[in-house]
Amino acid sequence: MRFKRIEKIRTWYEQEEAKESLGDRLADAVANGMGSWSFIIIQTLIVVAWMVLNFVAFMNHWDPYPFILLNLLFSTQAAYSAPVIMMSQNRQSERDRAKALADYENNLASKQGIEDLLSRANGTQAAKLDRILELLEKWEAEQKVKDL
Questions:
Q1: Residue 12 · residue 99 · CB < 8 Å
Q2: Which of 83, 89, 110, 129 has an alpha carbon within 20 to 30 A of 147's alpha carbon?
Q3: Closest CA to 40 of 91, 77, 89
Q4: How does 27-45 read in b/e, with b if 16+ C-beta sit within 10 Å?
Q5: Which H helix or E strand runs over 24?
Q6: Would you list the domain boundaries of the chain?
Q7: What's the CA gap between 6 and 128, in Å, rounded?
Q8: Distance spanning both ends of the chain, measured CA to CA
Q9: pLDDT by residue (tens digit) across 125-134?
Q10: Which residues of 116-139 are buried (b: 16+ CB within 10 A; e: fewer)?
Q11: Contacts of 30 (CB under 8 A, 6+ apart)
């Protein structure tokens, strides 16, 4: 029983993964990359290097203080990354809803199975109690006959 549930979960995941387009996978990769410490650290190192090279450069300051080109690059990065991250988050929300529905259906099936087992167990107990009562009545009848 347990393995069937695992198979169902894997099947559900594989179905969701098969529905993903190239754009979906790209949005997820960008969101995962930009939401990591590696990205933050690398970007920080690049910004520090950009600033230091522009301060130290004796000639040819390509982006002198207040670093307007750097600000433009950050604005462009934000303009493109925000919608891509939103696409990934929206897809994640859809996946979460689909998984919640699959979990709900699985829970309903489990509940039905438990109720079936409980009714069978109750039926078995009732049959045993009926048999015990029958034997007691038979025994009482035998005792009455002996007493006469």
A1: yes
A2: 129
A3: 77
A4: bbebbeebeeeeeeeeeee
A5: helix 22-34
A6: 2-121
A7: 37
A8: 59
A9: 888 888 888 8
A10: eeeeeeeeeeeeeeeeeeeeeeee
A11: 81, 84, 85, 88
114 CB-contact burial (10 Å; exposed 0-12 / middle 13-18 / buried 19+) = exposed
- Amino acid (one-letter) located at 45: L
Phi/psi of residue 53, nearest 5 degrees:
-65, -35
**Residues 63-106 pLDDT 10s:** 888 889 999 999 999 999 999 999 999 988 988 888 888 889 88
Distance CA 133, CA 126 (A): 10
Q: Give CB contacts under 8 A, 24+ apart, made by 111-119.
A: 113/1
Q: Is 147 exposed, middle or buried (0-12, 13-18, 19+ CB in 10 A)?
A: exposed
Cα 19 to Cα 117: distance, rounded to the nearest angstrom: 37
